[in-house]
Amino acid sequence: MPKITASSPVLLVRDIVASANYYRDAIGFTYGPDDLFGEPPVFCILRRDGFHLMLALADPDNPSTPFWKLRDKTPNAYFWVDDADTLYEQMKANGAKLDYGPCTQPYGVREFGIQDLDEHDISFGQIL
């Protein structure tokens, strides 16, 4: 039977290059010139630790609404990690816009969240 081998959140953003640079510089994702599509860019594929995050250009007449504005404490993307505290400190040092945490949730996860340039909440959790 065929298997799903990976997944990738897709975020709608106002500026592909500015957002890609934020994810690279503050969050630790990477991308190269072959990962930007369109001129000017309308899509980008970012990578970190074997995982992907995709950015697509939002329609300026119909911008996306971050999930937390629709339902409190709901991130647009969630990544499982092996060391939430160290990752938090790295992102803090790199200028990420920290949203919350790190904190230990009642469901046994050490967790923190950041916001991107378009106010999307991205959470990172470590199972304890």
Gyration radius, to the nearest Å?
Answer: 15 Å
Which secondary-structure class do the elements indicate?
Answer: alpha/beta
Instruction: Let me know the largest β-sheet.
Output: 4 strands, mixed
CATH fold topology? 2,3-Dihydroxybiphenyl 1,2-Dioxygenase, domain 1
- Uncertain stretches: none
The end-to-end distance, rounded to whole angstroms, is: 33 Å
- Proportion of helical residues: 10-25%
Strand content: 35-45%
**Helix and strand pattern:** EHEEEHEHEEE
- What's the count of strands? 8
Question: How many structural domains can be distinguished in the coordinates?
Answer: 1
How much is the average pLDDT? Answer: 95
CATH class: Alpha Beta
Count up the helices. 3
**What oligomeric assembly is this protein in?**
single chain
Identify the CATH architecture.
Answer: Roll
**Sheet with the most strands: spatial strand order:** 1-4-3-2
Descriptive notes:
The structure is a single chain. By secondary structure, the protein is an alpha/beta fold. The chain has a single domain (10-59, 74-127), classed as 2,3-Dihydroxybiphenyl 1,2-Dioxygenase, domain 1 (Roll). The protein is built from three helices and eight strands, in the order βαβββαβαβββ. A four-stranded mixed β-sheet has the order 1-4-3-2, covered by helices on one side. The longest helix is centred in the first third of the chain and has 12 residues, at 16-27.
Condensed summary:
The protein has 128 residues and is α/β, with parallel strands linked by helices.
Write the layout of secondary structure elements.
Layout: E1 10-13, H1 16-27, E2 36-37, E3 43-48, E4 51-57, H2 67-70, E5 77-80, H3 84-93, E6 97-104, E7 109-115, E8 121-127
Parallel strand pairs: 1-4, 5-8
Antiparallel strand pairs: 2-3, 3-4, 6-7, 7-8
